[in-house]
Design goal:
This protein is of the alpha+beta class and about 260 residues long. It has a single domain, classed as Sandwich (Jelly Rolls), CATH 2.60.120. It is about 20% helix and about 25% strand. It has five helices and 15 strands. The strands form four sheets. Strands 1-10-5-12-2-14-15 form a seven-stranded mixed sheet. A four-stranded antiparallel sheet has the order 3-11-6-9, with no helix packed on it. A two-stranded antiparallel ribbon has the order 4-13. It is globular. The model has no long low-confidence stretch (mean pLDDT about 95). The protein binds 2-oxoglutaric acid (AKG). 2-oxoglutaric acid binds next to β5, β11 and β12. The site of 2-oxoglutaric acid has 10 residues, from β5, β11 and β12.
Amino acid sequence: MNTKLKQEYEQRGYTIVRNAIDPDLASEVEEHVHSLVKKYPNIRPEQLHHNLLVDDPFIHRLVGETRLLNIVEEFIGHNIALFAAHYIAKPPFTGQAVLWHQDGTYWPLEPMEVISIWLAGTDSTNKNGCMRVIPGTQNKKLTLQEELQEVNDGKNVLGSGIYSSQIDDTDAVDLELNAGDVSLHNPSIVHGSNPNTSDNWRIGLTIRYIPTSTFVKIEGHRSILLRGETDPKVKNNFADRPVFNPQIHMKFNGWEKWSLK
Ligand SMILES: O=C(O)CCC(=O)C(=O)O
């Protein structure tokens, strides 16, 4: 058990694991985003949401990566599911910002037992709009959705955020990562990111892991069972294991294992 990682997370509401996945897998993440951008030309690359990913064999392979699940198991135990994944890929010069928010505001999870991994598919720095957190805010109560400011100016990944008058970002920390690193954050911590005005892509995958005892209260939502057992008392839906189809899926290392049910 990596108690240092847990201690850091408990104290600060976030922590970082360097080289959490191999460079080859991180390169595939980058390639995957570019393949999805081609496949969905009318969808902004910051908006490649769970519904577009949940039947994709590469995503199942990636979120089920043993090294990631071993980290997650320390926090939420052995019975692990994916609640949601979302690529927030910011293109050069025009990449959108993410307004200050707490993830838990948006999630109908019962209980709110969940851990987020933010996986870097490219380097993610202050220059290209890395994620930023305000340490200590993981202990604040969740802002309700009706208390948020709605902002639909096309410049933000989320259409809402916490009013800036309620934010003190003096102590905000840039979570600068290299491709293949991950950060972990608490569902209550206030976080966001600046636009990408640099000439490089900033690619990140948000991966939300829950214990199978957490109920996802969204009609028709499909989670992915990744390790251990489902909980018979908790009626979540799970996606089937996808079958690799070269017409629609990116080829990746190990795709053959996904070519048969
Ligand atoms: O990708 C970003 O800049 C923000 C990510 C985020 O809000 C999250 O992972 O909850």
